[in-house]
C-alpha cells in the first residue's frame, strides 16, 4: 500500500498485548499510531513496546487516526465505537460488538450512515483452513446438522481469568460468537434458538435452527480445567461428515489476515464483508435470544 492506515488502539489488556498491538504494528498496511486505555500506565507500556504514542483522552485519539481497533469489554466498546464511526473512523471490533442488542443496532446504523469500513474479530473465520472447509461444505451441500464444542478453563487460570466481563457474561458471550458464526457460515443463517441451558458450573448447551431446515448443537464452557482447550466442529449430512480439525493458524496470523481485508476495504472504499458490523449485530441477536431462552 502506498499509505499506511493510522490506527488507534483502545485497550491495553492481555488480548491487546498478544494480538491487536503486534498485529497492527507489524502489518505493512497499518501503523499503530496511539494507544488509549483506562489505565494510563498500561497504555504507556504497550505503546512504548510498539513505537506508538499514548493518547491522553479518547477524543484526542480520534483526531489523530484513520481507524480504531477496540480491545475492551462489550459494555465499553459499543458506545465508544459509535462515537468513532460518527467521527468517520473505520473500526475493528471485538465480539460481541456491544452489551445489548439496542446498542449493537445503533452501532451498525452509525457505521452504515458514516460509510466506514468495519470488521469483527471472529478469529477462526480468517484462518485458511476454515475458509477451505467452508468452501468444501458449500460446494458439496446436503448438510443437515452440526455439533460444536468449545471447552476451556480460561476463567480458572491464565491471562483472562481476572476479566470481570467474562466472569459476568460467561462462555456464551465470550466464545459463543465464534461458535455461532462458524455454524451459521456452514449451515445457513441461524433463524431461531430452539433451546438453551446454562448449568451451575457455567456450561452452556444450545440448540439452533438454521435457514433451510438444518439444526446444530453447541456446548460452551470456560470453567473446565482443560489444557490445552478442547474445540471441535463437525458438520454431517447425506455425504457423510466433515470436521474442522486443523488449528495450525495462530490467532495473531488470523488477525493479520483480518488486517489484510481491512486495509483493502478502506483503500477500495468497500464497506461490506462477511464479517462486518452487520454480522456482529446478527450474532448479538442470537446471543440475546439464547440468554432469554435459558432464562439467564
Automatic annotation (TrEMBL):
Sorted keywords for this record are: Oxidoreductase
User: Ranges for the Gfo/Idh/MocA-like oxidoreductase N-terminal domain?
Assistant: 5-117
Task: Identify the species of origin.
Answer: Lentzea tibetensis
Q: Which PANTHER family match?
A: BCDNA.GH03377
Q: Which SUPFAM superfamilies match?
A: Glyceraldehyde-3-phosphate dehydrogenase-like, C-terminal domain (SSF55347), NAD(P)-binding Rossmann-fold domains (SSF51735)
Every copy of the GFO/IDH/MocA-like oxidoreductase domain together lies at 161-240
**Name of the molecule in the record:** Gfo/Idh/MocA family oxidoreductase
Domain of life the protein comes from = Bacteria
What's one Pfam family here?
GFO_IDH_MocA
Q: Which GO terms describe its molecular function?
A: nucleotide binding; oxidoreductase activity
